[in-house]
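Suppose a colleague, Dr. K., hands you the sequence of a protein chain of 577 amino acids and asks what its three-dimensional shape might be. Before reaching for any lab equipment, you can write down a predicted structure in token form. Begin with the sequence itself:
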Amino acid sequence: MVSLLLLIVLGLAEGIGLLMIIPLLHLIGLGGAADSGVVTAFIGRSLALLGLPLTLPAILCVYVALVASCAVASRFRDMQNIKIIQGFTYFLRNDLYEDLTRVDWLSFTRIRAADITHVLTAGMEMVGGGGQLLFMLVSTLVIAAVNIVVAFTLSPAMTALALGIGALLLLILRPFNRQALHIGKEFHQAREEMFAVVTDNLGGMKVAKSYGLEKRCAHHFRVATGRLVDQVIKFARLSTATHMVNEIGAAVALSVLFLCGVEVMQLPAAYLLLLAFLFARVLPKFSQAQRYYQWICNTLPSYGAVLAMQDRLVQGQEPRCASAGQPLRLEQEIELRGVSFRYDQTSHDDAVHEVDLMIPARRLTAITGPSGAGKSTLADLIMGLLVPDQGQVLIDGAPLEGPRLHDWRSAVGYVPQETFLFHDTVRANLHCAQPDAGEEDLWRVLQLAAAAEFVARLPQGLDTVLGDRGVRLSGGERQRLALARALLRRPALLLLDEATSSLDVENERQIQEAVRRMPRDMTVVVIAHRLSTVRLSERIVVMDQGRVAAVGAWDQLANQAGLFRSLVQAREGTPRL
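The predicted structure, expressed as tokens, is then:
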């Protein structure tokens, strides 16, 4: 509202400044036979109210004061506009990211990381730029309107003619706007593709280097950036063509208006000079308005992509909780009752099919089976990341749904196969699980996870920066640090998903030793292939094709005919199932 009011005031001030040129021209002898009458009298009365005579120095001083005041007000207006645009993009970006954090896990896995990164960064910058252009367009139109009003007071006929020429010029340029919108869509797609190439190449750079694919990665990036450059050039070609047509049209229009003023209407010199000055200002405003509108059209696809992404995230959101509750305690058991789940609802294949399973509290349970048997899906269901299509997951007999879903997740410590560590210190990576943990708590969990020794050897100990994704640590060290982070939460359930599958024998032994030392009041579930890890468990669940094939202790399952015994016999001389 303040910005709009300033815009109107500045436009009026500019109009007053333009009107002051008429008595100024008369005072220096350019008025001609016909006096400016009403305008000069109005200016004279206004100066008299200020105690100033209608003289050349007085008019010039007032004119300079008006221009200086407008310059100060313009700066204030521009700062207000920037604050408005930045506030809008700040709100939109943070609102979008908050929606992302609330989306359910299944929907999250279907979103390409590059797409959300693109929308949150470059997409938002385009939206902010479009907003700034909108303010500039409105400002241009207001100033043009003020100039037109001033021109109309001098010569309605000439002003009407100028407006007609301007409207014809805009009509000629109308197809250019449709092209700008189309180019904007292609530009957005090209930039989205470039983000995807960068994300994929950075994520797979180690593989690319090991396979000697550096040239292939560079080629893909070159192709993506080439498409982006093509769209920029295409829009520049359109924008410069628009500017060229506007410049030629404005010159023709000004010539026609000047000719009509002299030959047809025979206007006085003061009026003619002022009208020429006004039209020389107004006609470029048409050109500016057209270009701003064209640039706005170019940014609209980015704004549409932001709204589309937000709509997608909102549709995939989990139900909101009224308030954060306390982490659930696990006293008796986790039960899966008739649980089925499929990732693709158009498919007839369940990832997990009619599973009935009980996981006792304060015990170590291993879930094993062939690849693709549904082990990780079962783990996600147990954690509450996935919601069953059929059946129920129960914690101590109560369904895992509604507010209990979030309370249960806060009671779970999770260590995945692919460990993620932040580009930060050891301390910060641990604190993300429990921000208020003290020094003693940190060393306690590091000791439990068999990580205290190597952390103590790091150059700055807990304050050592680990590098991107923990690149300064070995795979086993990263896993042990991730285990310590999970333990810092004092979870009711500790879930290790293939946490030792990519480790060497020594690192696997250290993780296994850490698991053996887990507090007896903690429930531990291990998803594993390796026989040595499975053998640690008090209870083993064997999965096959999404179903529970067998449940029991090692000796029981290894000695009875079935899938587990076949797998053990097939892998007897190797460390994996």
